[in-house]
Records
---
Amino acid sequence: MAAWVHDEGAAQGSRSRQEDDYGVFELPPELEAGDLLLVLADGMGGEQAGGRASALAVRSFIDAYDMATAAAIPDRLEQTLTRVNERMARDVASDPYGLHGMGCTLLAVVLAEEGLYWISVGDSPLWLWRQGRLHRLNQDHAYRSILAQQVSTGEISAAEAARHPDRNALISAVTGADLELVDVSRQACPLKPDDQVLLASDGLLTLDEKEIAAVLSRARAESHPCQRLLAAVAEHRNLHQDNVTVLWARSAVVLPAAPWWRRFGMRASLLGVVLGVLAVSGVWWWLVQDDMPLTVSTVATP
């Protein structure tokens, strides 16, 4: 069983209510289904429904994952998502008028000894931070992903995509209806000791990926980087800031940075090799010159 360090944080932004929810659950070894489960949901559906949907999804996912019968982690994640969607359908049916349009994104990550597994529906991003760079792992189930594809094929311009009124509309969400798109990792994504894993609601996209990566680069030796990310979002002073939730994890085994004297020693060793080569070359040149016969000029006198 691998050891993991994790951190969580959330902010309401400028919204009148918090519609994000999350949970982190350390999995019992006897379950043999990973070490750590992280779940995040971003709700939608109006004044009451958004927060209700995200809370229902997170809690029912954690419960259902524990009770799932599938042995392989990807199959267990799929089975759990099906149970959550069924539970959402029953909840909506209990008050079809008041809960019309209720749903949420859902992102669940399992950290295991062999690496990282995930399942996601919606646009909540999952990133891997490695060597100072951020890599998005899951699919973006928002209409902006279709617009981006149309930009790449030349169907529309980047400016048209940026101002499209439906660019942030979800094309898949957990609503109790048939799931249009589900992104699930069939194989574990191997992790290195210095890697960081970040889950977020789309409110974090006030920051671009370079800004997020920079915060994680500065905070990689810490155990609580989420507050730094939330502070960076707040510094933008976005008048329409969405709810923001961030979950972060890394292996408890971190490769230490080389101490300054060792880094200096490596540079000094390289410099020593260069100077040594120059010194040997100089000695060789001197010996060659020393072995050459002297040329004596004679001047005839009249």
---
Amino acid sequence: MDTQKKIKNKIAVLLVREKKDGTIRQDRIKNIILIISALSFLIVVVALISIIAAGTNNKRLTELAEYEITVEELSDELNTLKRENFDLSNKLSVLSETVATQVAISEVREEEITEMSLPKGFPLGSFGASTMQEEEDDPLTLIFTTSEGNTIITVGAGIVESIEPDEKYGNRLILNHGNGYKSIYLNRGQPLVRTGAELGTGYILFLVGSDNKALGYQVTHDENQIDPMDVMEISG
């Protein structure tokens, strides 16, 4: 038998190109050159992928670091807001207590003012003896007779609304208590106060002399005349 020659498989790349004169030229690239070229291309591709991956990782690490810094800053701001909220809560609590105290004081003062403004006092001072009776023609008008030297005084706090002449009693003085109540004093003496004067309880309106010992006294509520005894408090 003839010695058989071993046939080796070869891989070749055929490059075909056309010359200027129109002829075709074929070139072959042997196996080793093709392998080296493929490996080189693969190395370049792997290198590019590594560079891109490294850049992406660095970017992610940078973003993560920035995120951690942002979280820390937000945490500090949150703690600051918590402290401020705590301080504001304490201040609000103190302010609420202060307001509540002021409201309570204001309510007490208003009650005191309202109490002082009620026409519940006695219209005469304590000097000498005094008598009281209802007027014959008007049972809602009280007539007081007192001693010379005594005083006619306010029965509650109020403002002098008017002082006008009165044919029967000489003068008509109206004290507005500001709560719907008015006290009216009818006397022939010389008034010691002026219209618009703000007076407290017990202020002197007239001095009693020999010619003005009688006092006519009336009380109105919401412009309606009422019995003075309904609100008057007599002690002693």
---
Amino acid sequence: MNTSDTIRPTQGKLGILTAGLGAVATTFMAGVIAVNKGLSKPIGSLTQMGNIRIGKRTKGELKNPKIHDFVPLQDLRNVVFGGWDIFEDNVYQAAMNAEVIDKHLLNEIKDDLEQIKPMKAVFDHAWVKNLDGTHVKSAKTKMELAEMLMKDIEEFKSKNKCSRLVMIWCGSTEVYTEVKDVHQSIETFEKGLRENNKDISPSMIYAYAAVRCKVPFANGAPNLCCDTPAITELALLNEVAIAGKDFKTGQTLMKTILAPGLAARALGIKGWFSTNILGNRDGEVLDDPSSFKTKEVSKLSVLKNILAADQQPDLYSELYHKVNINYYPPRGDNKESWDNIDIFGWMGYEMQIKINFLCRDSILAAPVVLDLALFLDLAQRANMSGVQEWLSFYFKSPQTAPGLEPIHDIFKQLMKLENTLRHLKGEDLITHLGLDYYEEFVAQ
């Protein structure tokens, strides 16, 4: 059945709001503006650079259109940006301070970037202990803070004449917490907001405000946020698309590429030691053990899922997985990661793999923000409410429907994403089984 008729068109402007205007968000915004001015290309963005296969190879139907030509995505020339931050710097100043993008390029788009000024943020030092916000909202209750955010959302939409909005959490990693009683339902969560419950974090308040305003929301950090029963329930009730969590960028991106290959060849792994150094705001935040715990849980879950030691005890039951992150200011946003992987093969003979990845954290994250914004908007226009598991491709710790284990294998994630797009357009799903060829051969 062709479902493309049920996708609402991309009429009007799309407003992309980010909670946090640090290195990731400013790199994302500056990049889109540079692309629109013909100064750069959207490399790393699946929505802009990726192709999708449709049709059968054996019947002369095979096509490989660009994804943005296949499904109705918002044109980049018709998006506007806004956001909140704990510092007053406009996006040009924040991008200059982040030192990710070349200053000559930033100066070419300075006028555009200076127009994007942060709204006062919701911030609580108890949740991000290594930062002190100076551009923050003040209120008696957390419900009042949520109402302030909702007012910001509506005013931004009206002022910028947007027909639709999406929101992406690009803020810092918060202190580790697990689901508590206050997170179990809409009623308990709203009661907690009114009573200033200590287990409700700023990111949860942003998620609540977005979903209440029927704005699709994605969480780019590893902290508990829209993946609580309360926010998931509210998203279904309000028919809003949500996704999370933790942008999959550097070291974990490499793990989700390499680990499936080793598992596919039935090679054993005894140990996987990972360490990182980075000097941006994210590194400063993660220097606090309570925030690092949140990130550690997200990063450790990847190998456990891909390798499934309970199914392959001879290969992975003794796996020792260690992750370190070290704050090192001289590196700035240019994160460096090292991986030592102790593997074994035929008859138990041992081998090693070593990876030294000198990556640029925000350069890898920026196209993820773009794709999530455009795909969430697509999901919303296609009436796909609740958790968008097909967007797991972009996350370290993908949010799923209750009771389901996430898929971490990046190749399976990509197949799920592409098949979702095919389904939306009424195209046959691709399984790579080649049964059409086999059936034709048998018939002959």
